[in-house]
Amino acid sequence: MSSIKYRNAIPVKQNGGSKGSALTLKEMDDNFFAIDVTEGIAEINSAIVLDGSADLNSGIRNFTIDNDLTVGNDLSIAGVAHFGTKNTAVSSGGSVTIDWSVGNKYFLDLTEDITAVTFTAPPGACNLILQIDQNPTGGWIVSGWPSAGATVLWPGGSAPVITAAANSRDVISFYYDGTNYFGVATQNFL
Question: What is the DSSP letter of 58?
Fold first, then answer.
């Protein structure tokens, strides 16, 4: 596994290599370094900090970072950036906690009325998605959105009424600005 740190586009530390091949840094010009992986797979098991520019060689098929990636300037992705999985929230006794600090995508399968929703804040401003599914019984409600500390703000000032039909699905998108959540519901997917 590797650890790479850049400060002003100069490699400060480089340990090890990648799975099955050498991980090398190439100087492209005075202000730019590229990560080049011979075998096409790079796994980095610690944080990468880039205060300058970075480019992942187009020959890389897989690039996995198990911890944080901090980019001080632009990050350009030529392909698709995606999330490996969505997290599952489980309700208990009419309450549920959505821990946005562990992921931007959450799934909640309703099996009871939810009267208290708690959010754990993500580390910074971001977009978030909560998918809420009614089970085959249906008719469950969700109320009690956060209002203390971080507040959920809704268009017109009213939270949506979750679709009650059995097996229906609502998707709620949030923009978190570092203090408040701005929520918009897209409803009644069947």
Answer: T
Residue (of 66, 65, 57) closest to 32 by Cα position: 57
Q: Can you give the residue range of the structural domain that contains 137?
A: 87-189
> Do 91 and 152 reside in the same domain of the chain?
yes
In this structure, is residue 80 part of a structural domain?
A: no
Q: 3-class SS at 157?
A: helix
- Taking only the tens place, the pLDDT of each residue in 12-41 is 334 443 333 334 444 444 444 445 444 444
pLDDT at 8 over 50: no
pTM, two decimals, is 0.67
Of 154, 161, 185, 152, the residue nearest 171 (C-alpha): 185
Buried b (16+ CB within 10 A) or exposed e, 149-172: ebebeeeeeebbebbeeeebbbeb
| Whole-angstrom distance, CA of residue 142 vs CA of residue 160 | 9
- What's the pLDDT at 171? 98
- Angstrom distances, CA of residue 64 to CA of 14, 18, 91, 96, 105: 16, 10, 32, 31, 19
SS3 155: helix
